[in-house]
Amino acid sequence: xxxxxxxxxxxxxxxxxxxxxxxxxxxxxxxxxxxxxxxxxxxxxxxxxxxxxxxxxxxxxxxxxxxxxxxxxxxxxxxxxxxxxxxxxxxxxxxxxxxxxxxxxxxxxxxxxxxxxxxxxxxxxxxxxxxxxxxxxxxxxxxxxxxxxxxxxxxxxxxxxxxxxxxxxxxxxxxxxxxxxxxxxxxxxxxxxxxxxxxxxxxxxxxxxxxxxxxxxxxxxxxx
Length: 224
Description:
The protein is mainly α. The chain has helices at 12-26, 33-51, 55-70, 76-91, 100-108, 121-131, 148-157, 172-181, 220-223; strands spanning 114-118, 139-143, 166-169, 185-188, 211-213. α2 (33-51) packs across α3. The two termini are 13 Å apart. 30% of the residues are buried.
């Protein structure tokens, strides 16, 4: 089972650029850029519980952040500018991480590969098509949230053998800890630009599932 965003291709850096443009557009006179970013993080943290992930949810979080910090209702012009920031993300060319294509080709010949990501279903599947990596996956799961119950459901739905199945990803919160809790093995590949809301201390299992940390995706070919 392999994560997508920031495991196979760059993702969070695109949002970081959009947020930097938003902060410049807001041009707040009392809050620093760091404080604005912290306020946006708190808004997103609360909203994802109800509205999930994806560009539409992100766009609305920016609009809410604007209204709360600017102290005014966002006009049509304000929203058009915010829409432009998110449209730039959607229009960016897919940037695969080093060694991903070659490594997936190797793994596909030897194992059953399942893409396990979360977010807006249409957005994630479009990114997969645009990446040119679709051919390497036997199935695709776009989940609303990646928690322990979701991994337990994957175990049943795809008849995975827990001791022979690995979850591979960059997010401790979504990829590693809940997969380990569900009984899967996990491979943690840290990314320097992992979204702050995905950061969490990795909880190595005392027994049972195995946890491996790698520096690069391409090192998977040495293990499998």
